[in-house]
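Exercise 3.2. Students should predict the tertiary structure of the chain below and write it as structure tokens, then compare their answer with the key that follows.

Predict this chain's 3D structure.
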Amino acid sequence: MKLKIGVIGLGYVGLPLARLFATQYDVVGFDING
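Answer key:
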């Protein structure tokens, strides 16, 4: 079973973090531009 990671907020830190995790894990990102 592969680990799944959720990243909330794909701004200055969230997007690079999600991309880094995506090299090894399934990643879901969520962002609200408000």
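Discussion points: The chain has a mean pLDDT of 94. The two ends are 35 Å apart (CA to CA).
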